[in-house]
Amino acid sequence: MVIYHLWLLYRILHHPTKTVLGINTINRRIWVQTMMENTSKNGILAVQTLRNNIMASTLMATTAIMLSSVIAVLMTNSSLRGQDYALGGNSELGLSIKMFSILVCFLLSFLLYVQSIRYYSHANILINVPVGKIGLGTEYVSRAMNRGSYFWSLGLRAYYFSFPLIMWVFGAVPMVSCSFLMVFLLYFLDVYSGSDRREAVVTVEEMC
């Protein structure tokens, strides 16, 4: 999965119109520009949209910290130490390492969603400032919103990484199988090959 995400990062940076994340970044920038062209008319819509994003990030952050608490309780439960799983055959140390890896994933996801809330909150205030009264224009606001979305995506990726680690508790074979399955599914979620890609390319050229 690490290799896949490095490949995905390369595609996003060099071929953004071929990835869903890249296209969404372009569209969010256009959306911010449209909202700020007439703040008196579009202000309520913009605030409600960002509020929905903040609520979604809050829900995911709450879920992540709750799962972290569950994993921490399992790690400190003496009755589970040294337990021999059917497929894993884990020692006490091996099981602790695996549970700690899962805990790190959920804690990282929590921190990423907190950062997402932070940037969405900044954008929520700045998006209603008239364009003529802000020194950096719409670019600064769209960058804040895109950063919030980036942290949202990274938080979700931390959730995705936890699935192979959970399967690792039961052994290496389930972990590898889950990793290949996750890469297969994520490829279809991340890569865009629609017929209207040419329109997205034209949009990028116009914005540049």
Automatic annotation (TrEMBL):
Keywords: Membrane, Transmembrane, Transmembrane helix
Signal peptide: none
The keyword Ribonucleoprotein is annotated on this UniProt entry: no
Regions that span the bilayer: 54-75, 95-113, 125-145, 165-189
UniProt KW Transmembrane keyword: yes
InterPro entries: DUF599
Pfam families reported for this sequence: DUF599
Protein name: DUF599 domain-containing protein
